[in-house]
TrEMBL record, chains A, B, C, D:
Involved in the oxidation of myo-inositol (MI) to 2-keto-myo-inositol (2KMI or 2-inosose). It catalyses: myo-inositol + NAD(+) = scyllo-inosose + NADH + H(+). The keyword Oxidoreductase applies. GO terms for molecular function: inositol 2-dehydrogenase (NAD+) activity. Belongs to the Gfo/Idh/MocA family. Residues 134-249 form the GFO/IDH/MocA-like oxidoreductase domain. Its EC number is 1.1.1.18. It comes from Rhodococcoides corynebacterioides. Homotetramer. Keywords: NAD, Oxidoreductase. This is Inositol 2-dehydrogenase. It is an enzyme of class 1 (oxidoreductase). The keyword Hydrolase does not apply.
Length: 344, 344, 344, 344
């Protein structure tokens, strides 16, 4: 498919609206063709800001729409089952924000329906699998260098949660990420769960069991513990440590992946070259330049970054540097005054 | 401009080809419409892989082409002057890889020509200004919290350089980034340069003055020193420390921006929320899903990430978790065997 | 007491011999007056190297000895009860390596005997309470800045253990330190313990349950978990994190105490002055100089550190520096050749 | 010499008084026998607090005193020459705070006088050579693992200086430490010095050239730069980075020695065992216990640390732990109430 993927985003609350912005401004090869929301005005307001985007009032109609190639599901969990089955029915690939559905039986029904179809159409929004640090940790485990993973320690901390957040949501909405991280990193299923509710944070809302400690046992008997604490007042902290047969590795310490290995060293990896170190910078440079060029017709300024004067100044300094390289002595930089060139 | 920006990439060596891939796969709102290279076959090979991309044999023709909206210049430095002037003549925005031109006089001529035009069309590829860490450092300086910057220490280390790299290239190709970083961070011009060549690295090629120490003085008398060392054998390391009136801050220590402030603390900032922490993960998640969906017609697999089974497994674990939340005791996870569902 | 404390060290295996060396070479105000060991030759060999030290063959005689002011107990645990009671009987202060005694009933008997005496004579060798990092962590908790501690995570890792180490010793000899750390940091008793034995490290000796996860509940319902893993193959790692109402703090990350606080910062503390930064250096400097002076009569060299030449060289460089301070230009250092002064 | 070294401390200002306290409370095998100061009352006050310590009014008499074995010189620099020569004359080992003398000619005279004597009696107080981190850095260089050191970067920052501190004192009193560090780490002399005075810190006292940048060249042509900045307002920061042929290493980042090596790793070393990790804790434990025992006669409390109750509590928790090790289930800890034992 060389043309742009036409996506319907169903549900444009915080998460859905964020996906709409992402697809429009960041993702290449796709565009938001349809939006839909339970609150119709919200959908209309958003559609008006996206070229070529229209509102379809019924989510099932949006899924069935022949001008829609794929679906992003950011609707409330209870509607997921019906909408996912509709996607399967119409053969539409769907990226479904967690949860898949709100209970085990309907989740299984969706798995079975997709399996019966013989095509994998459903992706679930466990985005940590796409995080650079989790990727590095998974790659390190898979490399075998650490040997068999034995224990995993997780911490998941939010500064605050909305007023309606209750103890069970800590399990279903927060801990669920640690569930997927465990399954992703260890490549096996969880067989037993224990939730410990210690004496609660006095700063948490009355009745909220926070923090909670979850203990998972996996098929092969590995131990995972996860602290979930959603009223820390500090910031958003996510940390995972894998303790393995020949060493351990931790992410989420604000310092990248830190590894401990025999014979007694700790540390990380330095980027091997400028492509790895500045890849993000190059992407941002070009994206912002493209955006500036598109906006430039109105302002006469087609640049969003260093301009010709900056190139000239660099040349003048390097010229002085090249002279000093010969003599070793300080060399004055010769430059015209910027103000001497009107418009520079 | 709501349609895609049509870009001509001139020069498709390592840097140019990298920009072609970037614009094609990562950048939204633009596409590579034209490629050109001194080695015509290289341009043709590359164009064949990009939908809607053609080769224009003469770079000046490519610049003049009415179906080209903007230009990326990745040609050898000596050709820049003529090509930049052509871009100005045709009113085409141009993103020019460093150097602007290869000497001071021609750089000034380009600045003057653009100034005379009254439109800013030229951007220079000093990509560090778009790096997250440099951005944070600049923002911290501009916030005024550190007071007046007094001294800047830079280190720029490469594991190795190609055989043709000579002592002057260390100044013109490597140190030039520290020149721009200095001007970017301090917002003033460099007035004097000294290059010190200490006893050379015995592991460096015979005759290469490596490492070199550059000392810059700025208009207001600030001191900048920069170690440039291109045969370290280690990795790619770029470090900048700003020492200011009320504290200091360093980037490039593999741990993000680290700041020292009164009354005697060191440290960094934690991401305030999941949007900041996992923004990259969300972008990657959706981009890879879009790519997978586009490729899916052939394979029957439209997902590149966690699927319906992963959603089901998470539901089953959370269900057990919700039960354990009540009892505090371990609860077995109830799941069907994956192998019992053909195709799951 | 202005004279030196005369200490009897009972048991001179690894730990006891280490204490003998410590008291002799490092501790001021005390000396080892008596040593004793089940293996008499070992005691005699050691005593011969310590000026004024003699062997007493029976540990109870050593305790009763009128020329002994205090006792260090490094004998096997099963002998502790009788020896501690003897210390109490003779009013001798005793520093007892862990365990106090080998079971709960005898430990209680010792507590009761000391209480009946009305004098606190017994100290137990939980040395972590004297570690700089644990001290900093305790001080931070006690300052109240973090609010109420809610959860504590501990990790205790050894690269390897001797062949006789069994699963219960992981509890009694390793975990016991986390028991004391918990009581020290939280200032309350532990009311419940759970030991989880996950799938064992394949590299551990057959039958050893390693790693183990301990879960403590305290009087006020706080949760503590501790991973004890004694066959990591890596190094000696001890880590403790306290998660509290208004922030968290961790020690044992090879980077000192790292603290997370609102509104989203992480970091540590810089030494406020040279006394704190170089206090250890000053102590070592003077101790090694004292030792060198004492040994100097034989060698004619009474220094163990920088000598007069180093002072001269520093003067010469600073002289050149003071001249350069005026001119800003490089100034050659003028020094005589060291070889021109015989004996310098 | 098995008896205590009798030391005369000349000059009991801040540094001298600190050494008196150190020798009295921390150093084993030595005591302060004599103190002397230009301000006689200060000496008398201090002597009154030290058992067996007396005042000698003339520093030369103190040096000559037959009951003095060695001298610590903490007098003003201008008196050093005469006092050092007196130490040499009487064959007294002397630990001389920097500077050796206040100018190059007299420093040389002292070197020559000691050389003529044929005995090394003079040590200079460059205490950084005894700092653990500098020791580790020196050991790493000497191991040859990093190859030839090529460049050294130093930073030396004070939060503030006394009002009389002038620009030359930054060279003679602060930079002098970097002079010695350079000579210590590189094992060669400095041949040239340049002091650069950039635009001064607006927060520094009027007229103080602060910060200053020093550049040293060594005999073999190596480059050292040192930022000295004494009015940072932050804290006491000392940092040294050695950039060598096969890697680099830095100390002073608040995280111990951090090393960068091929093929692209950064990190440090974990303590190999509990002796290294907790050596300081053991020393402190025993020293504080010795001090507490000596003070105990008056209070009836001979412990300064965990007591018998702590040993009992640990036994009770470990007993529960050993039971849980068998069952895997939580086990309640059985303990008597502490309040049930009067005096416990």
């Amino acid at each position: 498919m060389t043309t742009e993927l036409r996506i319907a985003v169903l549900g444009v609350g915080m998460m859905g609206a964020d996906h709409v912005a992402r697809i429009t401004s960041t993702i290449t090869g796709a565009r938001v063709a349809v939006v839909n929301d339970y609150v119709s005005e919200k959908a209309h307001e958003l559609a008006a800001t996206i070229p070529g985007c229209r509102v379809v009032e019924d989510p099932l109609d949006a899924i069935a729409d022949p001008e829609v190639d794929a679906v992003v599901l950011a609707t409330p969990g209870p509607t997921h089952e019906k909408q996912l089955l509709a996607c399967l029915e119409h053969g539409k690939p769907v990226m479904c924000e967690k949860p898949l559905t709100t209970d085990v039986a309907t989740s299984l029904a969706v798995v079975e329906a997709e399996a019966a179809l013989g095509k994998k159409l459903i992706q679930v929004g466990f985005m940590r699998r796409f995080d650079t640090e989790y990727d590095q940790l998974k790659a390190l485990i898979d490399s075998g260098e650490l040997g068999r993973p034995l224990v995993v320690h997780c911490a998941h901390r939010n500064p605050a949660v909305p007023p309606h957040f209750d103890s069970a949501m800590i399990v279903r909405d927060s801990l669920v990420h640690e569930v997927d991280v465990t399954r992703f990193l260890l490549d096996e299923e969880i067989t037993s769960v224990q939730i410990i509710s210690p004496s609660a944070n006095p700063s948490a809302p009355q009745g909220l069991r926070d923090p909670q400690i979850a203990i998972f046992t996996t098929e092969s008997g590995r131990h995972v513990d996860a602290e979930v604490f959603v009223t820390t007042g500090v910031a958003y902290e996510v940390r995972t440590e894998v303790v393995a047969e020949h060493g351990s590795a931790m992410i989420g310490l604000d310092v990248g992946l830190v590894r401990k290995s025999a014979p007694g060293t700790w540390g990380g990896t330095i980027t091997p070259g400028f492509v790895q170190r500045f890849g993000q910078a190059y992407d941002t440079e070009i994206q912002r330049w493209v955006d500036a060029v598109k906006a430039g017709a109105e302002t006469g300024n087609y640049v969003d970054g260093p301009g010709a004067w900056d190139g000239y100044a660099a040349a003048a300094v390097c010229e002085a540097g090249a002279k000093s390289l010969e003599s070793g002595a300080p060399v004055a930089v010769e430059m015209v005054q910027r103000s001497s060139i009107a418009g520079a």
